[in-house]
Fold this sequence. Notes:
This protein has 350 residues and is an alpha/beta fold. The chain has helices at residues 2-6, 110-113, 132-142, 155-168, 184-195, 224-246, 286-308, 333-342, and strands spanning 22-26, 32-36, 41-43, 53-55, 63-67, 73-77, 82-84, 93-95, 123-127, 147-152, 173-178, 203-206, 250-255, 313-318. The strands form four sheets. A six-stranded parallel β-sheet has the order 11-10-9-12-13-14, with helices on both faces.
Amino acid sequence: MAALKYAGLDDTDSEDELPPGWEERTTKDGWVYYANHEEMKTQWEHPKTGKKRRCAGALPYGWEQETDDKGQIFYVDHINKRTTYFDPRQAFTVEDVQQKPKRYDGNTAALEILQGRDLSDKVVMITGANTGIGFETAKSFALHGAHVILACRNKTRASEAVRLILKEWHKARVEDMVLDLASLRSVRDFAEAFKAKNLPLHILICNAAVCAQPWKLTEDGLESTFQICHLGHFYLVQCLQDVLRRSAPARVVVVSSESHRFTDLGDSCGKVDLSLLSPSKDKYWSMLAYNRAKLCNILFSNELHRRMSPYGVTSNALHPGNMMYTSIHRSWWLMTLLFTLARPFTKSMV
């Protein structure tokens, strides 16, 4: 303390508080330095503690870094429509020490998980991304710089989803493409259209699904729940596997469900009964068809990982949560009622 008093640095209340005449600034990549206006010099170490500090993570949600005509960095808060030369991350600087990995749980939002990640070099494709979990996933990736492809059946709804994302951040790289998983021809045409863009593909999220659908056949002669939830995605991955391998490290994420546990694909002899996958109308039950498709998702993801991981492409299946209030239940009033009653007790899409 005697040395601080001699240097004139003992008249502040906090160890981290700067003495008179000093200012805290940040570099473009987030390192903190200190300017002494009286002596016209700068240094990396805090004038009192002698410690180096850096900004914690990326800019807060809604903020963007820009450079003015004089080359000076300023910050834009798109949410509150204001600008400042003060780096908002300076309120949360940390010492230059190794940080322990953060733990996540069922209450963690997508934006929290992606906080601090720069995905500007990634191309992400998400099926069924115009609503529900798919839309929130697409938005989170886009707001962190990724080039996001919304692969959707309904062009109008997909375009509206793109507009909503661009409304949040005008520089988001997001586009929609038409993909109807109920048509293998559409899947093939979609894959060819994507390949024509000459883009890599780092993340493919097979998210689209239907549930509690009345029995009907697709144009390929298959039961619609099975084809939309599983076979369409299976064929999509097959059509794009060469792109995934060229883009390695890459990953496939298949959105399955805990309901896969409530069915099986075996007959009375314990062998796989393929007729269960696309049953006739008299043997069809919508929830059982959904459960079987979700079981196929997991079996497919496991085998895909076994075959593709040697080439740098991983595959994982996930359960997003029980009875989340999405539009997947829209085909049956009873399911809509159950999901509505459960809504206060389940996770939101965010």
